[in-house]
Amino acid sequence: MNHSPAARPTGQPADGRDDRPADQPAADPAACPAARPTGQPADGRDDRPADQPAADSAACPAARPTGQPADGRDDRPADQPAADSAACPADQPAADPVACPAGRSAARPADAPELFTWEFATDPYPAYAWLREHSPVHRTALPSGVEAWLVTRYADARQALADARLSKNPAHHAEPAHAKGKTGIPGERKAELMTHLLNIDPPDHTRLRRLVSKAFTPRRVAEFAPRVQELTDRLIDRFIAEGKADLIHDFAFPLPIYAICDLLGVPPEDQDDFRDWAGMMIRHGGGPRGGVARSVKKMRGYLAELIHRKRENPGDDLISGLIRASDHGEHLTENEAAAMAFILLFAGFETTVNLVGNGVYALLRNPAQRERLQLSLDAGESRLLETGIEELLRYDGPVELATWRFATEPLTLGGQEIAAGDPVLVVLAAADRDPERFEDPDTLDLARSDNQHLGYGHGIHYCLGAPLARLEGQTALATLLRRLPDLRLAVEHADLRWRGGLIMRGLRTLPVEFTPGSTPTRSDDPSTL
Known about the structure:
Helix content is about 35%, strand content about 10%. By secondary structure, it is α+β, with helices and mostly antiparallel strands. A 5-stranded mixed beta sheet has the order 3-4-12-9-5.
């Protein structure tokens, strides 16, 4: 989700550098998961000041490009260059962090693609195709310096997502990277927000998921549909008369923020604070160093206060339900309830931002498919919308990489031996374009029927909020096509920039134009949303 001033102006420099003032958040969202040049939610962010360049990738292929936080933040001082490949030969392990901070564990073949660059972030799919064919379980040094295995084939990815030997608990990592902020969400440990579904294994995961899943039943989601439609229409009302908008800043960001705040039970007068904190979390390079961690701390303090208020005066909302919930006599602790509310907000809004943004952009780039969907909606049909959302999740989904997993024992995956303690990252974006599983995978086909994609994961960690995200995505796309039928991109494709990071994949901005329309007379007070 996003915060109004978050949107980056259309005239962004070609080098992708974020030149917004430090107090102006970016308009972009980061999976569940995916590698990009600027920042990412569930696994780390780039907190450099906007005017601080990144290490030169020519001097260090493993270094992160300008403003990219791939799987963790770049903690080098501004005047410390990245490791020189001459000082860190490909066959020399990165044992000395001074001599080789970015370290690599294996030589990169001459024809191997370079990962985690701006070019890669714009279109990672050719690189993933190379990895699937030549190195399907690939060990690499991430921009943060952490070494991990990237799993890119569908069959291997599906196996890894359901393998109990791959733990979600960072305590199983062989290196203390999480404590240093190189994995996970910056600041979550200090804020005592670690006990959420992305960081725990059974039996605690089973207990907490059962308690929280009561809020995401099909019935509850269906009951929320009118509110999602109301939010969608009111956001469009705000800009329809202008004939132009940034669909990330003006629409895709605020929609899920207000929706998840309503579900959690955040009072309307406090929702702008949540929008600001969420905006900081997805700014990825546009704000001051440490801004993400400070936002996490502020959110933790607010949630503690809100939980206390809900204990005294409970309502029909998710936080009240978490407080009341019990499982065989075991109640959620305050830390568990706060961590659960935090991760539902954190993971629940950015995936929807990216689903809407990536989905609209894919339709604009595939006009025949967009026209097909528009005609179907005009005829009052819903089937193509339903299969279309699934195809957009597969084709260019909101989560590029699944969140961190750590081997609890030695195991073999895709013919590759993985040591105990090694991090494993399942590349959902690569798996969902595997030609061994999907026919013509690089083609967008909204009517694709055999579409068991991994966009929301697989196994016990399958995304809990997927039904709500699908509802928001379907409502957003259908309403945009209905109310803005001549929607078109307002800039050249080459002018768009993707947010970087290791987990999420999403656009920073999406400037569009359309024929201005009339808007109902309504208050523009955010609390009326």
